[in-house]
């Protein structure tokens, strides 16, 4: 198929529809408004339903309902709106329902700004909602990868019966890039025999629920959930690695910042520096093994984020003290430039070569 | 360019590259010694707006008029009263960069009284690689909608078919063919074929006649 030029947010909508999503419930917030706008325009054409809910809390609970009846369903928002959805996300994880949630992050905390940021890493990977749950979190670095991960996200949600978050930022959402929609057959997906679609008088009713009246039952449910998360950790790590076996220093970043890091690396290489990159694509499960492959003589690992330092916690846990860690970040909606990263690398490695 | 009307309105779907075209057009006009006012009337997009490049443009002597409210994070469709200056003051050559869809183009309706037939140009920026403007029917539908909301008439088509930094001559030629078809149906002339400088030499003669080479001001170094 030929490439077309799409804005990240529009591409999310097109990818979701291509993946068979027919239900979208959301509430507007910048910088992701083109997602509900696209869905409101396009879902009706394919027999789907778009509802602009009265709030984010209502929208995520509509997702709970649609997912419980076995539908492919999505919601999207940006940082403060995602914060409002946390209760519903915890319920969805607890009730083991598949859905895709898109977060195009903006500056924070609070209402923050409408410019791009990456301050929701903790919220996404640590479970902003209550209880012992984990959520698959995928972080695209360009619009093509955004399309691919949205489509794959729906499959992962169905396979594991769990919510999947696509963690982008305003830049990915607003940026125009060439994309193509690969028409591969979906993975083999389990039948949704748990969905509440009516018994036809032939079986016991299915129950979608996250409330347990007996502590023993809830503990057993938690054990089952944890076994599922362990399986996700075993099977679903995604990472891009570049030149980490013989690097003087390894940069690590996800999403938009990873692209700026790549530009910084090519600049540094021209000056003779050997710089590697680890780009986590899945933030949960975090690709910790990649950090074990770094050259032992490397001077350290520089984490770059559009936050005050959140993913760096996972980097430290992965390195387990093996190498020194450094950090460079911009916040509030400021995007780091390749030069800033180049300068930071030189500062760590000790001046010009 | 000198033959274009004093007031140039640039419209097109978001992603068509109208902001990049507007910025380049303003820079070229300014280089011709004109006193240029670039008006950013985009209240739909919040990223990649011409006002972000105000500093570079002002260094080139171009007056950039955006929102009355300063601050990149202002998510309010506020327009500056200054917009009237280049419209009314005939010593200015005005370039108006309009929001990327019929809803965004509504801002222009407010200036209807200043847009007299024959005294302005409204250029429709066409990118044949955008899903919304890939066929003659879709382009015509878009032109009609935008004319209805802006209450102004499209006077020229700009073929700006691109895939950002991966644009090839094939893209430009395909866009040219579509633009010519649209031109035939709509009776609106093709004004310019836009492409990045390095592609110009490889293009066939008929396209080169109306070539408008551009530099990418809106794409950061790390973007594709």
Give the helix/strand layout:
The complex is a heterodimer of chains A (353) and B (224).
Chain A: E1 4-7, H1 8-18, E2 23-26, H2 34-42, E3 49-52, H3 56-68, E4 73-77, H4 79-84, H5 86-94, E5 99-105, H6 121-125, E6 136-138, H7 143-160, E7 163-169, H8 170-174, E8 176-179, H9 215-235, E9 239-242, E10 249-252, H10 256-270, E11 275-280, E12 282-284, H11 289-292, E13 301-305, H12 311-319, E14 325-329, H13 338-349
Parallel strand pairs in A: 2-3, 2-4, 4-5, 5-7, 6-7, 10-11, 10-13, 13-14
Antiparallel strand pairs in A: 1-8, 6-12, 9-11
Chain B: E1 7-12, H1 18-31, E2 36-41, H2 54-59, E3 63-65, H3 84-88, E4 93-98, E5 120-126, H4 136-150, E6 156-159, H5 169-186, E7 190-196, H6 205-208, E8 211-214
Parallel strand pairs in B: 1-4, 1-5, 2-3, 2-4, 5-6, 6-7, 7-8
Write up what this structure looks like.
- The complex is a heterodimer of chains A (353) and B (224).
- Chain A is α/β, with parallel strands linked by helices.
- Chain A has 2 domains: 4-235, Rossmann fold (3-Layer(aba) Sandwich); 239-349, 3-Layer(aba) Sandwich (Rossmann fold).
- Chain A is 39% helix and 18% strand.
- Chain A contains 13 helices and 14 strands.
- Chain A has helices at residues 8-18, 34-42, 56-68, 79-84, 86-94, 121-125, 143-160, 170-174, 215-235, 256-270, 289-292, 311-319, 338-349, and strands at 4-7, 23-26, 49-52, 73-77, 99-105, 136-138, 163-169, 176-179, 239-242, 249-252, 275-280, 282-284, 301-305, 325-329.
- In chain A, the strands form 3 sheets. A 7-stranded mixed β-sheet of chain A has the order 3-2-4-5-7-6-12, sandwiched between helices. In chain A, strands 9-11-10-13-14 form a 5-stranded mixed β-sheet, with helices on both faces. In chain A, strands 1-8 form a two-stranded antiparallel sheet.
- In chain A, helix 3 packs parallel to helix 5 (86-94).
- The longest helix of chain A has 21 residues, at 215-235.
- Chain B is an alpha/beta fold and 224 residues long.
- Chain B has a single domain (7-214), classed as Rossmann fold (3-Layer(aba) Sandwich), CATH 3.40.50.
- Chain B contains 6 helices and 8 strands, in the order E-H-E-H-E-H-E-E-H-E-H-E-H-E.
- Chain B has helices at 18-31, 54-59, 84-88, 136-150, 169-186, 205-208, and strands at 7-12, 36-41, 63-65, 93-98, 120-126, 156-159, 190-196, 211-214.
- An 8-stranded parallel β-sheet of chain B has the order 3-2-4-1-5-6-7-8, sandwiched between helices.
- In chain B, helix 4 (136-150) links the parallel strand 5 (120-126) and strand 6.
- Chain B is globular and about 45 Å long.
- The mean pLDDT of chain B is 92.
- Chain A binds chain B through residues 3-7, 14, 30-31, 107, 113-115, 142, 170-171, 174-178, 259-260, 262-263, 333, 335, 337-338, and chain B through 14-15, 45-48, 72-73, 75, 127, 129-131, 134, 162-164, 166, 220-224.
């Amino acid at each position: 198929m030929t490439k077309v030029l799409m804005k990240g947010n529009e591409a999310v909508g097109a990818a979701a529809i291509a993946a068979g999503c027919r239900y979208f419930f959301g509430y507007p917030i910048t910088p992701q408004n083109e997602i509900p706008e696209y869905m409101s325009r396009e879902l009706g054409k394919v027999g789907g339903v778009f509802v602009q809910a009265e709030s984010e809390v209502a929208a995520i609970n509509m997702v709970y309902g649609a997912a419980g009846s076995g539908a492919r369903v999505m919601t999207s928002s940006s940082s403060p709106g995602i914060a409002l959805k946390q209760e519903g996300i915890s319920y969805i994880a607890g009730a083991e329902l598949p859905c895709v949630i898109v977060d195009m992050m903006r500056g924070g905390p609070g209402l923050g700004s409408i410019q791009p940021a990456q301050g929701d890493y903790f919220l996404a990977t640590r479970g902003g909602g209550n209880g012992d749950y984990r959520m698959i979190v995928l972080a695209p670095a360009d619009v093509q990868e955004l399309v691919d991960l949205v489509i794959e996200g729906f499959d992962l949600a169905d396979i594991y019966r769990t919510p999947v978050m696509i963690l982008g930022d305003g830049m990915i959402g607003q940026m125009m890039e060439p994309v193509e929609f690969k028409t591969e057959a979906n993975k083999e997906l389990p039948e949704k025999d748990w969905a509440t679609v009516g018994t036809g008088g032939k079986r016991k009713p299915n129950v979608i629920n996250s409330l347990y009246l007996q502590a023993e039952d809830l503990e057993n449910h938690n054990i089952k959930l944890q076994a599922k998360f362990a399986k996700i950790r075993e099977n679903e790590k995604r990472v891009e690695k570049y030149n980490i076996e013989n690097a003087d220093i390894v940069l690590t970043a996800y999403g938009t910042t990873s692209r700026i890091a790549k530009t910084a690396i090519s600049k540094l290489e021209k000056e003779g520096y050997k710089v590697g990159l680890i780009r986590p694509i899945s933030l949960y499960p975090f690709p910790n093994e990649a950090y074990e492959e770094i050259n032992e003589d490397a001077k350290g690992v520089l984490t770059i984020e559009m936050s005050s330092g959140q993913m760096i916690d996972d980097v430290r846990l992965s390195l387990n003290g093996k190498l020194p860690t450094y950090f460079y970040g911009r916040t509030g909606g400021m995007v780091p430039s390749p030069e800033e990263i180049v300068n930071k690398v030189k500062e760590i490695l000790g001046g010009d070569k | 360019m000198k033959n274009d009307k004093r007031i140039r309105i640039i419209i097109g779907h978001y992603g068509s590259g109208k902001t990049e075209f507007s910025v380049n057009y303003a820079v070229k006009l300014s280089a011709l010694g004109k006193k240029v006012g670039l008006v950013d009337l985009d209240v739909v997009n919040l990223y990649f707006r011409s006002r972000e490049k105000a500093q570079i443009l002002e260094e080139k002597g171009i007056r950039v008029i955006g929102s009355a409210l300063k601050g990149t994070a202002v998510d309010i469709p506020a327009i500056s009263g200054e917009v009237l200056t280049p419209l009314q003051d005939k010593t200015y050559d005005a370039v108006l960069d309009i929001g990327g869809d019929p809803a965004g183009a509504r801002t222009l309706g407010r200036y209807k009284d200043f847009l007299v037939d024959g005294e302005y140009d409204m250029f429709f920026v066409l990118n044949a690689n955008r899903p919304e403007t890939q066929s003659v029917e879709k382009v015509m539908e878009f032109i009609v909608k935008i004319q209805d909301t802006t209450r102004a008439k499209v006077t020229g088509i700009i073929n700006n078919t691109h895939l950002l930094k991966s644009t090839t001559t094939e893209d430009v030629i395909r866009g040219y063919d579509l633009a010519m078809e649209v031109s035939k149906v709509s009776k609106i002339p093709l004004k310019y074929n836009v492409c990045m400088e390095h592609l110009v030499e490889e293009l066939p003669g008929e396209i080169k006649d109306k070539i408008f080479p551009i530099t990418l001001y809106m794409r950061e170094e790390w973007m594709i």
